[in-house]
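hey all, quick one before standup. I had two proteins in the batch that finished overnight and I want to keep them in one place so we stop losing track of which output belongs to which input. First protein below, input sequence then structure tokens straight from the run.
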Amino acid sequence: MSRKNVLFLCNHNSARSIIAEVLLNDFGGDHYRAFSAGIRPGDGPHPMALETLRAHGHEIGEVRSKGAELFTGPDAPTLHYVITLCDSVAQEDCPVWPGQPERAQWRLPNPAAVAGSDAEKRAAFEDLYASLRRGLKIFAEDDERSLRNMALA
């Protein structure tokens, strides 16, 4: 059985999509290969996103912020699913994805936008991590579950 490719898409590819990519690659094992990208990628992953992943024992490897255009060319992997993780990306003119992957939108708050103390910011990243972990574990264990019907909040 070949693995299905999943692209998590956000504006900057610095927090939500990075965390989702690492989680699904850990949980998806032989069934899924996760990628992440941004419509307007930032300078790199948010430090608290990486801190949160490390705190939960995930290997970070070569996680980096990438542009969506890397997944549209002839050398791009065939995508089976494209999942947007924020409302603003759904409003954008997204690229045409080769292979007509199934698309879904999971509306998740951006922890990088939280103002306040470091403790409040870390709590926002932990909340996001918990939501994504719960939903992606279900998805990784149940290939028949439709992405559109998953509630992550």
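OK second protein, same deal, sequence then tokens:
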Amino acid sequence: MHRPNRLRVTGVLASALAALTLAACSSPGDTPASSPADPAAGFPTTITHAFGTTTIPTTPERVATIGWANHEVPLALDIVPVGMSKATWGDDDGDGLLPWVEDKLAELHAPPPVLFDETDAIPFEQIADTRPDVILAAYSGLTRDDYDKLSKIAPVVAYPGIPWGTSLPDMISLDAQGLGKSAEGHELTADLEAEVAAALDEHPELREAKVLFTSFGGQNDLSTIGFYGTQDPRAGFLADAGLGVPAVVAAESHDAAQFWIEYSAEDVESFHDVDLIISYGSDDPEENQKTLDTLQAHPLLGTIPAIRDGHVAFLGTGPLSAAANPSPLSIPWGVRDYFALLAEALT
């Protein structure tokens, strides 16, 4: 599911406490008896988020997720959701599952959960039909109305700050708390951080390179240049990993109310410390070269050092472009290839 450069998101029944979906012993349709509150697992637990607080009374046995990659938190902890978001970006075989999710389901010997298509709107009735005990949406673009409708189905773990602005560690922490697995969530984050550090060690030249994450692909209007702020996990992940942050990104990310920021091309001097640009683009290298040629010929944008020197890493439309928006399962699958792509563009 590729999110465009604007905030875009778009029930209704009471929830039923039902089945624990551990892949090794059950399927999304099984319905064992509901469980009591479990103080040892941290229940009841209350989670604070952008819309207030959510209390989850007992260990959830049926887990639904919406938004980008929230389903990967339970999967990484060997819990198979009863329903989750359908992948509509980076899906290499059209089955609605990214390859690292397919790999994990196969490892757990689990069939695919119900897939929610959120392209036009959140499918509230379809979500309700899965009878979840909790809905994980710590990284999402829920509106207040969305949240209120979903809360009539089950307790909702919403994002802590701005829509689509949750860091990967925060997504893992919040979603894991909603599952009663906070300790396991902390361990997962530590493991991922170690994997990222090891991958970056293979390309030390990236450590201080100041990186701008944008989207030039198919862009006809060159009067502006937009970029993701560090609240967005794409840019935030790179900063946390140890890559450099351009001054304009650092300044505009402070207390920003949205994850996408735009500047006039006339303010091009603001980007003169950018060493490397990451951009969504085409799967066709020739098309990406045409885009770069156009940018280099532009009287303003062509003066940005990264554009002038051709230090632009174009992401296509395949799985690696989805892995650039990092998640618990995509990091082990693709972070080394991702950093290798960036290092190649920097040389």
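Flagging for whoever picks this up: Confidence is low (pLDDT under 50) at residues 1-35. The longest strand covers residues 45-49.
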